[in-house]
Amino acid sequence: MTKTELKEYLLRLSGTDVSKCMKCGKCSGRCPAFKDMDIKPHQFVSMLNKGKVDELLESKAIWNCLSCMACVERCPRGVAPANVVEAVRDAVVRAQGANGIKAEEIPPIIDEQIPQQLLVTAYRKYNK
After folding, report:
1. What distance in Å separates the CA atoms of residue 72 and residue 78, rounded to the nearest whole number?
2. Which of 77, 87, 104, 113 is at a distance of 20 to 30 A from 98, taking alpha carbons?
3. Are 73 and 30 in contact (CB under 8 A)?
4. pTM (2 d.p.)
5. Would you state the pLDDT for residue 37?
6. Cβ proximity of 91 and 48 under 8 Å
7. How far is CA 102 from CA 25, 78, 97, 108, in A?
């Protein structure tokens, strides 16, 4: 996949209009994992907008993001940095070949309290 194709893929996967970001940094200021991130939330958005996908894919921040959506709440322009981080994380996992779980790999001992909807949703999300 070329850089341009990867950028388009990440934009589609995240569902975020990164061009709306005005680089105010409010998302990063609200992030509880800010100190542990090598690339801050507002930088993720900016770097994706500039097409610096290789740096994003190598970032350690994708594993430090808590997916708490505090950055999304704080953004005055409706940009969703957490969605960008999750899209990059998913791209890395898929590239590693660890992108799914097979139905037969689900443990036979499943708590009866777990709704089947949860299992189906998780299966669909991680088996794309």
Report:
1. 7
2. 113
3. yes
4. 0.73
5. 92
6. no
7. 40, 36, 13, 13
